[in-house]
Amino acid sequence: MQILSKLNNRKVAIQGVTVLTPDGWLKDATVLIADRKFISIDQTISPDGFDLVNGQGLQMLPGIIDLHGDAFERMICPRPGVNFPLSIAIADNDRNLLASGITTFYCSITDSYEPGLRSRDSARTLIDFILGTGQQVLNCNHRIHIRHEEANITEHQELCDWMESGRVHILSINDHLPPPGNEKRLNRYLNSVKQRSSMSIEEIEILINQVREKRHQGAAQIEQLVDLAHTQKIPLASHDDDSLEKVLLSQKRQIAIAEFPATVDLAAKSREYGAAVLMGAPNLVRGGSHLGLMSVAEAVKNNVIDCLCSDYHYPSLFYAPFKLQELGLMSFEKAWSLVSSQPAAAVGISDQKGKIAPGLDADFLLISPEHHPISSITSVYVAGQEVARYQIK
Question: What's a single GO MF annotation on this record (predicted)?
């Protein structure tokens, strides 16, 4: 892979390419790009003053918008208790995003009561890097998705300050604290924390008990965060709604995105009140949910899905639309909207991203349709600049 330097205001013409436009495929087109945006998509135009790129035999797809991805955690902490410098980890993660065709990434940072990787300190450091010095080295367009744990009641004002200062672009309300008496969820949570920390099982159990004793103090904080999100026009997401009661609470909170609802009926209820249903692409690629909940295939068959995300595996998000077409569940054109235009609409940026159309940011992929999807990307462009190029064998 070759990472190329960013050049401002370059005028580019991609010629002879087959483009996936909002109206379908347009063959043998010329796509003009200037000032970081698409200027025109035309079959007859002959540009003057543009750098020419030969797109013969290639397809142009809108860049992928990933609303929920946390695989970067494994770049930071590849083994329990083993951490790497943040700048190295996130720069490496950036390359992995581009290799999977992701041009806009909502970095899903967990704001938890846990120490270490998912702590408030870690969240603060990540945000400071991504929105600060990281802007000089990261090619993918990074935004911040805070996954706030309901039971995390510390430093509440700091989170409010982040939201008020525009540092949070999605806020999701999470509750991974296992309830008393639910051994299945307790064991799953213990194993999960063990994988990302050096804590013993006994230490994790002590932490859980301490957090349970204080979690009731967070109820008012959550409602304040919900109100603040609406005031600041930050999209709100629910997480893992697995009962009608939770869906109705999400409706009351005017949730914009329902992440991973447990069943078809709950997903349908979420869509009824206006939420976009978001599911993980690994669910589709692996053949089902790793938690035994609703599958993406089932959601597609019942028309209760709006968007796909990488969740914990970036390559799955690029491969998923091809898989949906292969399974006969959806046309490729409609399937690609699950990773581009529909995520953009869900978070209110469809006037900027998600489609190849005049006036929108020139974020796109060039792929070779003659090759298997997993090795078909030839170039990735962000804001009209080629940021990654791959040799197709």
Answer: hydrolase activity
Contact predicate 279/35, CB 8 Å: no
Alpha helices by DSSP H, 138-218: 156-164, 183-195, 201-214
Q: What is the CA radius of gyration of the chain?
A: 21
The amino acid at residue 113 is Y
Those residues with Cβ within 8 angstroms of residue 306's Cβ, 6 or more apart along the chain or in another chain? 271, 276, 277, 278, 338, 342, 346
> 10 Å Cβ neighbour count for 187?
12
List Cα–Cα distances, 380 to 3, 113, 165, 291, in angstroms.
Answer: 10, 37, 31, 33
Do residues 26 and 19 touch, judged by C-beta distance below 8 A? yes
Q: Write phi, then psi, for 228 (nearest 5 degrees).
A: -65, -40
Per-position b or e across 13-24, b if 16+ CB within 10 A of its CB: bbbebbbbbeee
pTM: predicted TM-score of the whole model, two decimal places: 0.94
For residue 68, give every residue at least 6 positions away whose Cβ sits within 8 Å of its Cβ, in sequence order, or none. Answer: 106, 108, 145, 172, 237, 259, 278, 280, 309, 310, 311
The whole-angstrom distance between residue 95's C-alpha and the CA centroid of its chain comes to 15
Alpha carbon distances (Å) from 352 to 142, 221, 242, 304: 14, 32, 33, 26
Helix and strand totals (H; E) in the chain: 14, 16
How many CA atoms are closer than 13 Å to the CA of 154, on its beta-carbon side? 10
**Is the separation of the CB atoms in 160 and 114 below 8 Å?**
no
Rounded to 5°, the CA angle 239-341-308 comes to 35
Instruction: Return the closest-CA partner of residue 246 out of 227, 268, 229, 261.
Output: 261
pLDDT in tens for each of the 393 residues of the chain?
343 444 556 899 999 999 999 999 999 999 999 999 999 999 887 788 899 999 999 999 999 999 999 999 999 999 888 889 999 999 999 999 999 999 999 999 999 988 889 999 999 999 999 999 999 999 999 999 999 999 999 999 999 999 999 999 999 999 888 777 778 888 888 888 877 877 888 888 888 888 888 888 888 899 999 999 999 999 999 999 999 999 999 999 999 999 999 999 999 999 999 999 999 999 999 987 877 789 999 999 999 999 999 999 999 999 999 999 999 999 999 999 999 999 999 999 999 999 999 999 999 999 999 888 878 999 999 999 999 999 877
Instruction: Count other Cβ atoms within 10 Å, centred on residue 75.
Output: 17
